[in-house]
Amino acid sequence: MYESFNPANPDYKSAVHALFHRAGFIQALGIQLKDVGPGWCETTLTLEPRHLQQDGFAHAGLVATMADHTSGAASGSLIAANEMILTVEYKINLLRPGVGESLFSRAEVIRAGKRIIVTESAVFANRGNEQKLIAKGIFTLSVLPK
Amino acid sequence: MYESFNPANPDYKSAVHALFHRAGFIQALGIQLKDVGPGWCETTLTLEPRHLQQDGFAHAGLVATMADHTSGAASGSLIAANEMILTVEYKINLLRPGVGESLFSRAEVIRAGKRIIVTESAVFANRGNEQKLIAKGIFTLSVLPK
Amino acid sequence: MYESFNPANPDYKSAVHALFHRAGFIQALGIQLKDVGPGWCETTLTLEPRHLQQDGFAHAGLVATMADHTSGAASGSLIAANEMILTVEYKINLLRPGVGESLFSRAEVIRAGKRIIVTESAVFANRGNEQKLIAKGIFTLSVLPK
Amino acid sequence: MYESFNPANPDYKSAVHALFHRAGFIQALGIQLKDVGPGWCETTLTLEPRHLQQDGFAHAGLVATMADHTSGAASGSLIAANEMILTVEYKINLLRPGVGESLFSRAEVIRAGKRIIVTESAVFANRGNEQKLIAKGIFTLSVLPK
């Protein structure tokens, strides 16, 4: 990480947990919060046939959803209790086909402005004992009053 | 569209239909092929609670998945029967919160190289009689032997 | 363009002209304002050897600079006299090698929020009587008090 | 860096030097090669008024040009003597206004395929004794026969 951050909300861990429990899409897909700290977050997902594209790889949209939500949660760890996060835009490179038993994602805040937060998010595929980087993205998020 | 395209596969419509039927993630989400022609594709999705993020809007990952798969299908309309498409990377801007009964996406190829295809994809939300542009992205796809 | 816009500054044309005259980098490169209206802008550049990369094509950085500044000017046409524009981020695809006598760029605002403006920008190369699309990008800009 | 790389060209350092000497745009701007190794490159630039935008900051186009060319050189360190590199696309976030005496950029390859190389590139501004991250981007480059 490029700098260290102080969360504006002392109860930020509960706030980030809520970003997972209250998001129907994330619940439906099965993406789980693994760990969170000030300015970073980690998530996991067990891959199932319903997550794949036509050639048997994790769908680019699934991989990006995981990277995006993990970025939102990393950003959410820094905001005040009366603020919320919306994704403004992102770019993601799918570096290798996503093949394996599960995915792991880690997002880190690289710039925390008052109105705009920028993160980097990486997604890895776990296959047997091997972990491979399959995607990397940069995300721009907006901090808004709730 | 910036130019007109000739599909390499005369049976490209069946090939594009298969991109939807054979993709578990797209089937699970409920994204449907609406129409396809040489270098373009249109899709629709009826919004449900399982598609939303924590504040009740269509999840950015869902919107991007729709834009991505529609781009893949627009690209898939141009390739030979023994080729396949993989997303190399994309960038998407979420322009407005996705609120409404359904989403509509249209993707258009803006450059069809032998190895790389580039598309633009837009996503609209339908709410009552109103249709609003909620996202716009640029996608880079790779053409590979099957 | 997806919608029509009303400039907040009645004298927006002068304000946009100043974005060119007062930018040392744009002056040094020779990028010229061709035309501007509410939410759009067009620029031109005569190509010289000092604009090229190692293989004789217009440098990607030059093409992107032109697309970026034209986007900034399209955005600048909409803001108040006491506001300024900064590029938050952008993504650009270099679709074809930039070869020819001159470049032409057109940027259009696709979303004008109070704090964030999003544009699309295209760059074309003119060679003899032919004009080819060589780059397309999406730009996110921030509206700030001066 | 995520992995270590073996250059295909034993004389890769000369090849990368040529990417700077033979690029008119890079020479004209004053961007200098600082160091290069397998899969990475570092460059520097002394800031002058001709590099700035209308508010006195390093122009986004300049910052991106530096990040792009440094990415091209990092990629160029890995290719064969009869191959060349073209930028397919990139995305860059301008994290802070570029203010200071000089810029420093470091690019690292994060995925080296046979046809496509992906890099990350960071740009820092040096002001007095302080160095600040001002931009971060992801670049997709194409490996082509010369």
What's the CATH H-level homologous superfamily of chain A?
Answer: Hotdog Thioesterase
Q: What composes the largest sheet of chain A?
A: 6 strands, antiparallel
The portion of residues forming beta strands of chain A comes to: 35-45%
The overall number of domains of chain A is 1
* First-to-last CA distance of chain A: 28 Å
Oligomer: homotetramer
Radius of gyration of chain A: 15 Å
What is the succession of H and E elements of chain A? HHEEHEEEE
Number of strands of chain A: 6
Q: How many alpha or pi helices of chain A?
A: 3
Level-2 CATH architecture of chain A? Roll
Question: What tags apply to this protein structure?
Answer:
homotetramer, 146 residues, alpha+beta, six-stranded antiparallel beta sheet
